[in-house]
Write a structure and sequence with these properties.
This protein has one domain. Helix content is about 80%, strand content about 0%. It contains two helices and no strands. The protein is rod-shaped, with a radius of gyration of 17 Å. It starts with 7 loop residues before the first helix and ends with a helix.
Length: about 50
Amino acid sequence: MQHHKYSLTELDNMIPWEREIYIKLLMQHLKEEKSRQEAENAKIRAQSKRR
């Protein structure tokens, strides 16, 4: 809801194929965000080991 700026009412009013597309886009975004955070954490760990 927050990433694509949909309200709960808008999600409830979506037809099934719209909701399915929204969920797929949201899942893709979450996977990308997790990968980005993991890469950032690895970078921080590598920098802290150098010190």
